[in-house]
Amino acid sequence: MSTHHTDLRNLETPHDSGAVLVVDGHGSVVMCSDAVRELTGLRPEDLCGHPVADLLADPGLWPLAGSHGDLELRRGDGTTVMVCMESRRMLAPGGEGLVVNITPLSLAVRRQEDQALVRALFRQQRVGLAIHGMDLTTTRLNLAPHTLGHVPVADNTAEAFIRGVEDELIPPDAEAVRAQLRRVAETGEPMVDWVHSARLRSAPEQERALSFSAFRLNASTGRPIGVAVVFTDVTQEHAARERMSLLQAAAERIGRSLAVPTVARELADVLISRGFASLAAVDLTQGVLIGQEPGEAGPGAGFQRVAVASSDGRWPPDIHPLGATFEVPGVAAEHVRRGTAGLLPHLDQWRAGPGLRSEEAQVLLPEAADSFLVVPLSARGLVLGTLMLWRTRDVAPFGQGDAALAEEIASRTALGLDNARRYTREHRTVEALQRSLLPPAVTETRAARTAGSYVPAGSTEGVGGAWFDVIPLSSSRLAFVIGDVTGHGLNAAATMGRLRTAVQTLGDLDLSPGELLAHLDDLVVRLGDLDLPPEDGPGDAPPPATGATCLYCVYDPVAGRCDMASAGHPPPVFAAPGAPAEVVDVKPGPPLGVDSLPFEPVGFDIPPGSMLAFYNLPLLSQPDGTPAERLARMRAVLSTDAAESATPTRTGRTLLDELLPEPPDDDVTLLVARMRPLPPDAVATWRFPADPAVVAEARTAVEAQLEHWNLTHLAFPTELITSELVTNAIRYGGAPVGLRLIRDENLVCEVSDASQTQPRLRRARLSDEGGRGLFLIAQLSSRWGSRYTDTGKTIWAEQALGDAGR
Q1: Domain extents for the chain?
Q2: Please, are residues 17 and 36 in contact by the beta-carbon 8 Å criterion?
């Protein structure tokens, strides 16, 4: 028993702490706290001098010296209340007495529970409990940080553990924890279930995650006195969540693209951004990059580095960079061949080992790395490439769990890469088919120089269906064609080939632009009927050619004129030297196969040196401007190039650089043509009346003109052709006859009459008196034919000039 000399005259206690009474050796109340008023209903001065036993419902239970118990207290109004009375001996005025603390029983029970809870928390072994001062120094701790979940601290008093988190955790983790505790201490806002890495200084390589909950402690007066922290080890749960999060992120990012390099980049980026590795590289075989089947991953197999990523954004210069090709050496190659992950937790031991070759170090050993993991990217039993990962010395080395996780991610990635490889192969096939169906990029004739460009879409969904063409016509004329088929892929490319062939065939008939498009429209309708799905198949699939667009333009270098018509295709841009470029005022008709409306033609004169730019709509439908803005930029380029006499090749390249900074989402076609009218002395024209006697005059005129052109070696066949054509025109036309010679790359002889009856080539019988004229013309010429005109028809025949005429 201890005794104390205490001045209790002004003794006051909080009401929730009960009442305090001082009792002398005779059992009488000497003094009491004001809280007795609320507890008993009596004033303190009314109690002083009276026996304390009078307060009890059973006075015989007094005294309780040196003990405590649960008693029934009598109140001034006659009611009773259960209280807990606890007494201590003390030296009071007039001799030895007692200090009696009277607490309502409910409050006493709650106080005992609080004390039991605190004792249990500081004695249990699975949950950490710490109390920090306002300076965040640890003043009380139930478990040593390095023994969390195992052994309790023997002495958890402040003297046993007065230190901060910096003394136990590595600096980065300690700094993060201290920042959170400082926030709680300063703001009073609790922190609940904050999970963070808490690696110990004694074992920095061991991954360790703790869940922290913290709240500020206040004294009874409300003054902050510290921070209480509850922490639990959630390393396994945290690792499992991180694993699932990484797998989900990898699945989402890797599955978004069907481009092989993009899939590889996403794999490297997700592993770095999620903190799984410090360095990541994806190396693929050459065949995979071009869509081919991967070969055997045996000795000597070549790989190309297609993706790299690093946590600091810098790739180490001492290992292979992006784009390098090499062979995977040593132990890594063996793991790739077997299809299993290779793990080297500590590279320093390997660096110090004997027999390390320089090529191995250049592939596998960046100086900053301390741990290495290589995982083959395999699909369908074939190795597509490798995934190489490194961790630096400030990160825990790779373990078997990391290897298993990397293998799972690599397996999913390999499937994505294989799908992308197949997609690449299809893309290349469609693009190859598309290019094979297009004419040469550059054509050169005396009438025009052209340059065509085909820019495939960045994905297979956009490839197929766009085309352009330059078709030589009779009498040195040229036809410029550009079109676009609805849909994409192999079907669209094949349909484009069918339409291009149809246009070439119809072009040989020398039809006018509007008439040719009308025939082509009818053909598309019939193709659509043939391509309709069967009755038991899906009925909502549109015919592959329906909705195709086409623009057909005929340039006559003799007349210096263009005639064109459009079936739903955007009009070209026309630029004459010294004048601003303008959009040709041609009214696009409906797309092919959509409506039976006629196609309105438009004609205009072409000054020498003028340029025409034909294009399809995707060239103007790009995200860096509206179609009107991009069309204005096209007109500006053409105006400049027309004035500077730029070649179509240069103009086409300038337009694509200006309007296509990125690969388009849909095929883009561009055809640029610079017109060159034939010189006047390359054409000779005559007009004869419908009199058989003029046939001789026609022969004489032709002979003289050929002598002027130094083409006398062609005089005899040309005279025969002229005689036959003029004779037939006079016999069957019955109107004045026109005769024209054109000296171009070939010699063209034309005869025009008023009849619209087309001649037919037939084989005459021995008994026939006529019918051999056209057969003779076919034998003497390299090409012949006829075309309708506004006033009748024109029959023409071409002959090669030969070396003497060039």
Answers
A1: 15-111, 124-233, 239-428, 440-675, 680-805
A2: no
